[in-house]
Amino acid sequence: MSEFLLELNNFKIHFPVYGGILWRRIGKIYAVDGVSFKIKPGETLGLVGESGCGKTTVGRGIIRLFRPTAGEVIFKGKNMSALPKKEIREIRRDMQMIFQDPFESLNSRHTIGYILEEPFLIHAIGTLKERRAKVKDLLERVGMQEQVLTQFPHEFSGGQRQRIGIARAIALNPELVICDEPVSALDVSIQSQILNLLLELQEEMNLTYLFIAHDLAVVKHISDRIAVMYLGKIVEYANADTIYEHPLHPYTRALISSIPIPDPLAKREREVLVGDVPSPRHPPPGCRFHTRCPIAIDRCRHEAPLLGPLPGETDDSHTVACHRAGE
Amino acid sequence: MTLNPLTIKKIKRFKSIKRGYVSFIILCFMIFVSLFAEFFVNNRAAIVYYNGNLFFPTYGNMKSGTSFGLDYDYETDYRELSRRFKAEKNGNWILMPVVPFNAYENDLRNDAYPPFPPSLQDKHYLGTDIIGRDMVARLIYGFRIAILFSLVLLLVNYTIGISIGCAMGFFGGKFDLFFQRIIEVWSNVPFLYVVIIISSIVVPNFFMLILIMTFFGWIGMTWTMRTITYKEKAREYSLAAQALGASNFRIIFKHIIPNTVSIIVTFAPFSVSGGIVSLTSLDYLGFGLPPPTPSWGELLQQGWSNMDAYWIVGSVIVAMTVTLITVTFIGEAVREAFDPKLHTTFE
Fold first, then answer.
1. CA-CA distance, B296 to B41, in Å (whole number)?
2. Inter-chain Cβ pairs, chain A and chain B, closer than 8 A
């Protein structure tokens, strides 16, 4: 078994676009187009990027809510795309997901008790008594009272619901938890509570997180390593501190300069990007960022840069996909 | 089972819409009365007290005249027996139903031809139809058949429609495409012609008529269910269930269908009134249930061709109007109470 819990190699998810009179496939949306990264057990990888860049699709593709078009997902040394359906179901026990919108992710027709019991029911774990005990234990772990068991999701606030969502995700003792923007729907004051809860749980249960977010401040707080995505591709990948201190890619630099500084007197240089994200249906040729890049040269328009260390360096802990990086 | 507080709220809201709630009570009462119509409208007595014994002839096998000291072996004529007991005055008594006729017997007279107008004395409170059958009995038993028919039809239609619609929405792709085309072709088959052809070959009975009607009726629900399922399937709670490794079966039945119930419930009352109307119109045209089954359509037909017997056409139209209005009011109130958006107000 390799030292990595999860490995993505050239992972692609394309969605077909249908149209015309005969409803034929007339195009593709390149939602995720060749993403590779590795996560060690116990680590947190932050995946950032603006909306529509394919972060969520990566998460859902790993857990097989979407079928990957190409590429490999190697989880615990097993290539998921080669596994039969039955084994994928088994593997899902070790891989869970926390969803973005706590108002959507809990079925409003079930009690909290049932929602938390369901993972055990699905995998036929334990007797009724054992299941109840486990549910109580779960509630305790996420810091909720026992009496919520008979209540329904709409009776809770967003933060409480997200705690329930987290409890459901950790119910089966997973190894990898994919957090799909778990705090972006919450109040700022609640965000830190939930983040701390996630960190506590990580320590307690030795969880590995793939933390998807668009908020760099949040990601910085929680991640060991960070991957920045733009239009279906990773443009920069490095240790969390490195990426904040020495961002190499112009896109990363723009993102970091957009983090608000809680000091009205602080001087700051802002790199404001102009224009919109191009449609993932017709991604620009060459470097996908060249339409908005302040330092784009002619080469960027024709030749797509590969993700790799700076020229002349061998350390692959900090990789970037830019022709002009380091200049 | 604990009821979801949201459901309780919906029920409360339904109750607060007076027009719908009152209609609901009226309809329930009508259904209740019609289900136990044998006690209220029957030519058999409800209770007979004869020589120290109590008899309840309403249900069960017929009692021959000899068991009450009469000189014939066929079924006792309780109306006759009642008159006889009264004349004898030896302590025997009979409790007759409010309307002492059943829906099939012809109450004929020697000196006149039916239809007979309403008369309290004869206990034909709404008169008789053109062959001397009591109108009240025909109406109530006809109502029973019509409402049962539309309820069974609803159940069968919705079971098929929901399963296929749900499957179309859930599995999508080729399956969805295939069934869409099938349904489009299917819904263009002219329903009435098929019914006419079938009933010219065989005489349809209750279940066959249900079968024929379901043959075309299931389509309506599939479109709705397909759309809702597409929507619910993509919502995060069902993705969460999928991520937990839940089977398709569990996702459909535990997650998606419970979330569509409020929409299904909204459609149900209108389907019921639709069922009643279609059975009545088929009967009116003569392609429905075979005579002598009590039916409103047949009465309507009689009334139409005997306009001078105003009580026939009048009572059928009143009965139909009341039934359809109550059902529609219920439907309206249900729709209002289950409205997820609550944009409209209902005062």
1. 17
2. 71
Q: For residue A205, give both structure tokens.
A: 């249960």
Question: What is the extent of the structural domain holding B250?
Answer: 5-36+137-338
Nearest of A111, A212, A121 to residue B245 by alpha carbon: A121
Do B92 and B147 share a domain, yes or no? no
DSSP A249: S
pLDDT on residue B347: 44
- Taking a C-beta distance cutoff of 8 angstroms, is the pair A27, A280 a contact? no
Is the Cβ of A132 closer than 8 Å to some Cβ of chain B?
no
Scanning A233-292 for CB atoms below 8 A from B yields none
Q: Is residue B144 part of a domain?
A: yes
Residues of B in contact with A168 (CB under 8 A): 240, 244
Distance from CA of A96 to the nearest CA of B (A): 6
Instruction: Enter the tokens of residue B38.
Output: 């044998």
> Is residue B241 in some structural domain?
yes
Q: Residues B162-212: pLDDT tens digits?
A: 999 999 999 988 888 898 999 999 889 888 888 888 888 888 888 888 988
Residues in chain B with CB shorter than 8 Å from the CB of A65 are 239, 242-243
Give the CATH number of the domain where residue B315 resides.
1.10.3720.10
Counting the structural domains of chain B, the total is 2
Name the β-bridge partners of A236.
A228, A320
Residue A308: strand, helix, or coil: strand
Question: Is A109 near chain B, with CB under 8 Å?
Answer: yes
Q: Is this model's pTM higher than 0.90 or not?
A: no
Q: Which domains does chain A have, with CATH numbers?
A: 6-94+172-320 (3.40.50.300)
**Of A91-100, A161-170, A310-319, minimum mean pLDDT range:** A310-319
